[in-house]
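ugh ok fine here u go
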Amino acid sequence: MGRGFESRPHRKKGDFFSLFSFMEYFVYIIQSEQSGVFYKGYTSYPSLRLEEHNSGKSRYTANKGPWKMVYLEKMPDKKTALIREKQLKRVNPTYINWLIHQEFNIINH
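structure:
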């Protein structure tokens, strides 16, 4: 007999999180058609996120658009997407232009 700390079937690790295992994550790069500047981020809904950027719902990208999606890469999970986003935020425009033209860029398919 325990004191209420036993593992309960409805609280086992994985039950709650398994509900979200179907979610897909992407890193993306959008480019301002006005200034050419790039913005990098991650999302589960790329087309919706682009729409948010173009409608001024993102503070940094507001008033700098219109924006176009130039790079999209699928990630296996949220953690990997966050790590990749941070990497992309540190790269130079030459590398970004190289990435945009790569075969693994979903936009190119």
